[in-house]
């Protein structure tokens, strides 16, 4: 039987979020019922709630950084029990049959993954995200949160953590590698922590030096201001890997010039507008311009285990649900150190 649960939703594009209720399906054969304890606020929540990327489904309940506790299981569930600490990230289903799904790369599902929110499930019903008290998710798209990670600090790892872990692992950040993280925000601060724990030499490239003390505390070896043109001259040809977390267009030629031969600039931030590129920035130096999107279920679990082993929770500011709209404005103003997390008990 469908159950209505309290939630915060955007009723229309660019409208403030407001308290409401949304339906949750009955717990099916392979489903787990999760009491959400914390939900992170990702910049992509703002993009989607305000229809910045288009194709918004309203009312929209954002939230794909979900940490909670299992309170019910379907009769055939084998991976989880009532009381387990679990997380849900950016998607809750995929085709399960294509080559990518079979490889554990569900985020690149040929038929398209089913987003945790702002998507239609296999029955054509809209999905609603983590700004709510409960969610029902297939056990195969649920991950276990290790006991060593506090739930509020773990919630942002389900997007911010895996979004940075995946390219850092794919491009082999580690000892002997020089890695730069562009932007020290909700994504970037986890990139610094993870790259440092992997053993890389880590540089932060930020607009100003305002956050330098934070960056070094998080594990950065170096910190440079991109607003200073001398930075691009001084660091030319320095890095094996640059991961850009910013959601504004960059001067890609300038950033590609910071790479060594065979270096890669990987984008995980997604500007709303198109960007331009002079291809000689790639041709000179056999450089790579790439993108990366979250990670599969197995890799997300691996990331959580890695973070637990190294004590890498997100830096969070826990807020009550009635401050969501204020938090959105503060995210846009870069006024958060470094991730807002909603205490869903306040919904």
From TrEMBL:
The keyword Calcium does not apply. Belongs to the zinc-containing alcohol dehydrogenase family. GO terms for molecular function: alcohol dehydrogenase (NADP+) activity; zinc ion binding. Residues 15-342 form the Enoyl reductase (ER) domain. Pfam families: ADH_N, ADH_zinc_N. It catalyses: a primary alcohol + NADP(+) = an aldehyde + NADPH + H(+). InterPro entries: ADH-like_C, ADH-like_N, ADH_Zn_CS, CAD-like, ER, GroES-like_sf, NAD(P)-bd_dom_sf. This is alcohol dehydrogenase (NADP(+)). Its EC number is 1.1.1.2. It is an enzyme of class 1 (oxidoreductase). Gene3D superfamilies: Medium-chain alcohol dehydrogenases, catalytic domain, NAD(P)-binding Rossmann-like Domain. SMART domains: PKS_ER (SM00829). Its cofactor is Zn(2+). The lineage of its organism: Bacteria, Bacillati, Actinomycetota, Actinomycetes, Kitasatosporales. Keywords: Metal-binding, Oxidoreductase, Zinc.
